Amino acid sequence: MLRIAVLALVLLYLLPIGISALLYAARARGDWRAADRSSAGLLPEPRAHRPALVRVFSARTVSWRGILATHAWIVVKEEGAGTYSRFDYTAWGRPIWVDRFVPDGRWFGSVPETVVGLDGAEAAAAIPRIRAVIAGYRYAAPGDYTVWPGPNSNTFVAAVMAAVPGIRAGLPATAIGKDFPYDGRWFGTTPSRTGLRLNLGGYLGLTLGWVEGVELNILGAVAGLDLRRPAVKLPALGRVGF
Description:
About 20% of the residues lie in helices and about 25% in strands. The protein is an alpha+beta fold. The protein has a 7-stranded antiparallel beta sheet. Strands 4-3-2-1-5 form a 5-stranded antiparallel beta sheet. It has 3 helices and 12 strands. It comes from Methylobacterium hispanicum. This is DUF3750 domain-containing protein. It holds the Pfam family DUF3750.
C-alpha cells in the first residue's frame, strides 16, 4: 500500500509539476515587468454591448510561479454601462484593486481563459451581490494577502463565486489558494453547494461535488476528476479532457 501511495503521489503530483516546469523552460521569456498586458479580445466593446455582463478570468501567474499557479479576477458591467469594472486581489498595496488592469488583458503575457460567463438578466441579478461581497471582503487590509496557502487572488475570487447562487462553476485546479477557508469553516458544503468539502486550512483537503468534481488538495496542489465534463485535473497542468 505504501508503494502504491508513493507511485500515485509521483504520477498525480510530481510528474505534472515536472512537465509544467519543462514547458516553462522551453518558452522564450523576457522581463515579466515588460510583458504584454493588452486586451486578449475576450470582451465586446462595452458601449456597443448593452446587456449586463459578468466574467471570471484566470491566467498563468507571473514569472516562474506560472509553473504551478494561475491568477483569477472578476469583471462586471451593469446594463447600459459604458465601461467595465475589474477587480483583482494582489500583494501590492491595498489588496483589492479596481480597474488597475485592462478588463480582459493578458496577465503579464499569459492569455486568460473564461471560467464564468453570465449575461443579461442572470448577470444583472448577480452584480449587486458580487459588489457587496467585494465591499465586505474580510481580508481587505494591507498585509492580508498571503501567496500560500492563502488568502490570495484565487481565495478572493472563490469567495465571491461561492456567495452568488447563479454562479455554478469552480476555479481551475491550478488556482492555488481557492481552497483556503476564507469563511473560517473547515467542513461544509462546496462553494457551488452541490457537495461537501473537508478543508484543513488550505494545506490539505478533499472536495466531493457535482460542480467541483472530486478534488484532493495536498499543500495547495489539486488533483482530481471532473464528473460533469469528464476530465482529469492535475497540479500545474490543470484540466486534461478525455
